[in-house]
Amino acid sequence: MSKMLIRLAAILGAWQLFGLLLLLSPPDSTNEKVIRFEQASRCREKAGLYPLNGEGIAAMLDQPPQIQQDCWQPVTLPENNPIQEAKVDLNHPHLVRTWYRVHYRVPDDWPVTKPLMIFVPRVIANAWQIKIQGQPVADNRSDWRSTWNRPVSAPLFANQFQPGQTLDIDVAIIASLAEGFSIARISVGDATILGRQKAFREYFQVVMPQALSAVILLLGLFFLSFWLARRAETEYLLLAFASVALAVLNLRYTLTQPDNPGLDRWYDALIIDSAVPWINCLVYLFIARFANFSFPWVERILWLHVFVINLITFSPISLQYDTSLIKGATSFLIGIVVKVIVVWQAIISQKIGLRIIAVLLVIGLFVGFHDIALNLNLINPEGIYIGPYSVLALFAGFLYAIQRRYVAAINGKERLNADLTKRLAEREALMQRLTESEAELRCQQCRLLKLERAQTLAEERHRLMHDMHDGLGSTLLTTLAAIEKNNLPQQAVADALRSCIEDLRLVIDSLEPTANDLVTLLATIRYRLGQRLESAGLELKWEINDLPPLLWLEPPDALNMLRLVQEALVNILKHAKASSVRVATRDLGQQVEIQIEDNGMGFDPQTVAPGRGMLSQTRRAERLGSELQIESRPGQGTLVRLILPVSKDSRA
Amino acid sequence: MAISVLIVEDDPIFQGVFADAVNKAADLRLVGSANDLPEGLRLLEQTKPDVLLVDIGLPSGSGIELIRKAHRLGLACDVMVITVFGDERHVLECIEAGATGYLLKGSKDLEIIDQIHSLREGGSPISPAIARRLLVRFNTEKVYVGPNPTIDKPILSGQERTVLEMSAKGYSYEETARLLNLSPRTIETYVKRIYRKLQVHSKCEAIYEARKLGLLWD
Question: How confident is the model at residue A87 (pLDDT cuts 50, 70, 90)?
Fold first, then answer.
């Protein structure tokens, strides 16, 4: 239903748009009630010495025509720049009046009540006047300074013509010798049709630039409010100022230059001379800030240009010399530099917004060429100035670039929000699932824990089995076999069993929960072996100090440790023939050291090959991840150092 | 007067070893030997010995029960636990129950006699592992010390703590005595005192816990 409605509305809208286009379409210039002259006769008066001001123009307009009959020449309209001579010298004749004459025959059936009109879409000159049958009917002395942008028109009323009459229509152009002039085709005919054409041209040449200025100022207000909300983003303030400068620039299409000399200088300064430097500067700065590039020297040149131009305009120099060319040329050149930089940045930065701005700037450059060419009488004067339109396009580009940035930001935020919402939902779902399967999970965890425990148990069992088999088991079996063969003395049996029990004690001690306490382990060794050492006549010097706990020291390592130290002590007991043994610990920070030193006979490590006992000691030390150093010299005793890392991580 | 000794041990060989050792000493008198818990309880009540040698792993129940019984009877009886390796967890439980000494199976006669004498004179043996455990326990646990249940009050004196610390590092009583400028005997009595404190401490704890659970009233 609503789709249907939308379709109907679209059709209606299209129909109404068509009607609007009909209303806005340019009037038909090939109407038979209008004659557009492409052929005319031209006659140029002698140049005169008139000042280029209101009075001079008025005097020139009031001067009777000075035309010799033979001066008329046939010409084709539109015509560009038919005169061009030496440079302007205000002390020599420099203003000249040129007459264009066409012959118009009023149709025989023309109703006398219906007015006619003479219409020339554009004359680029200093002033114009129209005469019918030698009688002046219109001139533009009141706003002669706007000649370049106002259509030429003069209505003819019933008392000025008769049906069937052939009228001599003269259009006079006043222009400077140096600048020349141009003139579009002359149309004569039905005043209602030509009046519409005139209105149409005025609309696009005068009204529209004004409307665009208003739009641009409004956008400037928008950017200003934007900046007020986000002070850090100065590019929007720059753009607001740029919009003011552009609106001021557009004033030239509407606002007539005043005759008052003081106001005239203001007009020159604001609208003609400094508007473009300001625009160059502000637009460039906006783009640079917006697209995030910075060339300080360019910015300095732009600011310098703005100041210098204003200085020149208000200095006495501009009274003596015509500085407009310098101003215009520097503005133009700097404008090109700005555009080149922006285009270059657009190419390397690959930002769509910047690229669109660059394209619009380049288009604006060609639009500028067109308008300058029109102003310099180089192209068909019937065209219109399109600068204001390209400025609007440029602003549209700015808006688009800003819109892209903000839409991207908003989209990003929305995506983020959506992502967050999604993740939240996922988390909630997960929580839900967690709650639902908590019991199950707990059960699983239970199983895992059980499994782990079972694994640890299995490992321990394996280790114990291994120890029993290799150590205790084999010693017991050997002893048993020897007893059965009856060739073992009782003392040997007791010794064998005692060693078995000692080993068993080590295994049990290594399973103590305090096993990672190295000091307690050493203390336990003394507790087990102390009496045996003392009864063998060995003096024990116990120098054990506190050590940091070795967290990595698990029961298997503890057993290795116990065996290693016990073995070292038993070796001293058996081989060293020592009278005292010193057991000491040292805290080395990242490592701890155990020293076992005897004062026995010692040996020469260079000559004595390491025996089985030594090899197994080294292997134990390796398994512990520790360093075993044995220092000995014959007759000097032996020092065994065992260096263990405090944490396994620090062991590189 | 000779010291009366009661042996409760299920292994006949070890019972023999201990009995022989006691009989060898002139000032020790064996007042009975039992090989299970009921017999041991009966003999304990009947003979009221000065020293009780008891194995924990008896066929008809734990020897700890016997230790508790000895205390319930209010006997001035030194309890000595017979253990294979000084298997520390059990030894500690026995100390909590009231034992103040322990004997390793495999000890020679002379050692046994020496240990009994030492115990009778107020000394107790200690192993590094037991010392370490006691340090941990006295360090971490809150103690019931009267109506204000959570006041922290060190149970051990500084010297007692030093004795435990030295023992945990493997230093002998003689070495500790030199350090503290005391006699080795004094050190031994310190250890016995520590054991008693542990016993009282465990009792207090039990009462405190029971009160909290509402099992006991003042």
Answer: low
pLDDT digits (tens, 9 = 90+) for A373-418: 888 888 888 888 888 899 889 989 998 988 888 888 888 888 888 8
Query: For the residues A60-74, what does the mean pLDDT come to?
Result: 86
* B128-213: CATH class: mainly alpha
Residues B37-50: tens digit of each pLDDT: 888 889 988 988 99
Distance of residue A491 Cα from the nearest chain B Cα, in angstroms? 15
Mean pLDDT (chain A) is 84
Pair type for strands B28-34 and B3-8? parallel
Domain ranges of chain B: 3-120, 128-213
Residues of chain B with pLDDT under 70: 85, 87-88, 140-154, 203-218
C-alpha span between A389 and A250 (Å, rounded): 10
Chain A CB contacts of B164 under 8 Å are none
Rounded mean pLDDT, A599-612: 75
pLDDT above 80 for A482? no
How far is residue B161 from each of residues A207, A527, A545, B94, B170, measured CA to CA in Å?
A: 105, 19, 16, 21, 14
Spatial separation of the C-alpha atoms in residues A227 and A250, rounded to whole Å? 24
Alpha helix stretches (DSSP H) within A437-517: 438-467, 474-484, 490-510
Chain A residues with beta carbon closer than 8 angstroms to that of B171: 523, 542, 544
Residue of A nearest to B125 (CA): A527
pLDDT of residue A323: 76
Q: Which of these, A309, A314, A310, lies nearest to A334 by C-alpha position?
A: A309
Residue A571 lies in a domain: yes
For every residue of B185-214, DSSP letters joined together read HHHHHHHHHHHHHHHHHHHHHHHHHHHHHT
Q: Are residues A192 and A234 in the same domain?
A: no
- The ipTM of this complex is 0.81
CA angle A273, A277, A281 (to 5 degrees): 165
Question: A384 and A240: one domain?
Answer: yes
Question: Last residue of some domain: A511, A538, A556?
Answer: A511
pLDDT 10s digits, A132-158: 988 899 998 888 888 888 899 999 988
Residue A291 and residue A342 share a domain = yes
Among A180, A198, A216, the domain-final residue is A198
Q: Which of A508, A514, A542 sits opposite B132 (nearest CB)?
A: A514
Q: How many CB pairs under 8 A join A and B?
A: 52
Count of domains in chain A?
4
pTM for the complete prediction?
Answer: 0.49
Identify whether the C-beta of residue A557 lies closer than 8 Å to the C-beta of residue A624. Answer: yes
B78 CB contacts (<8 Å, ≥6 apart)? B50, B51, B52, B100, B101, B119, B120
- Percent of chain A surpassing pLDDT 90: 21
Domain that holds residue A73: 28-198
pLDDT of residue A362: 92
- Cβ count near A278 (within 10 Å): 24
* Distance (Å, whole) CA A519 – CA B131: 12
pLDDT score for A582: 92
- Kindly list the residues from chain A whose CB atom is less than 8 angstroms away from the CB atom of residue B167: 523
Indicate whether A429 belongs to any domain: no
Whether residue A521 is found in the same domain as residue A584: yes
Cβ under 8 Å to B: A residues 531-560: 542, 544-546
Q: Which superfamily is assigned to B3-120 in CATH? A: Response regulator (3.40.50.2300)
Indicate whether A431 belongs to any domain: no
